[in-house]
Amino acid sequence: MLTKAFLLKTKKRLLSERNELVEKSTQRPDIDTDGDETDEIQGNQLIELQNQLNTRNHAKLKQINDALRRLEDKTYGVCQDCEENIPEKRLSVNPYFLTCVACAEEREREDKRKRS
Ligand SMILES: [Zn+2]
């Protein structure tokens, strides 16, 4: 069972990560638009980069929101496959883990089988 202190700490961590992401994704790159061709190319590259970043941030944001929802539902830290508790140590490494080590390995094997 996860301790209350750990859950609280995780919640704080998730919330601050979410704030950071939201701040980052609302920033726009500085683009010089005086019609210079090189600037235009650089500007396009910047937009491209920003879009990639936003896609990544979006996926991350979803992970964070999902984890926060599980915290609210009291299902946080329970393996989605075998319903065993996921050890604190594993969740400290990555608070978004949905499965225990054994099931994560099992899923990986399954993925490899599907791919081959
Ligand atoms: Zn499991």
User: What is the terminal separation in angstroms?
Assistant: 37 Å
Kindly estimate the percentage of residues that lie in beta strands according to DSSP: under 5%
Q: What is the overall number of helices?
A: 4
Secondary structure: helix percent: 55-70%
Outline, from the CA principal axes?
Answer: elongated
Overall pLDDT: 89
Structural class: mainly alpha
| Cofactors, ions, other ligands | zinc ion
- Can you tell me the residue ranges where pLDDT is under 50 for at least 5 consecutive residues? none
> How would a textbook summarize the main sheet?
none
Q: Can you write the helix and strand succession as a string? A: HHHH
How many strand elements? 0
Radius of gyration: 19 Å
List keywords for this structure.
116 residues
What does this structure look like?
This protein is 70% helix and 0% strand. By secondary structure, the protein is mostly helical. Helix 1 runs antiparallel to helix 2. The radius of gyration is 19 Å and the shape is elongated. It starts with a helix and ends with a helix. The model has no long low-confidence stretch (mean pLDDT 89). Bound molecules: zinc ion. The site of zinc ion (ZN) has 8 residues, from helix 4. Zinc ion binds next to helix 4.
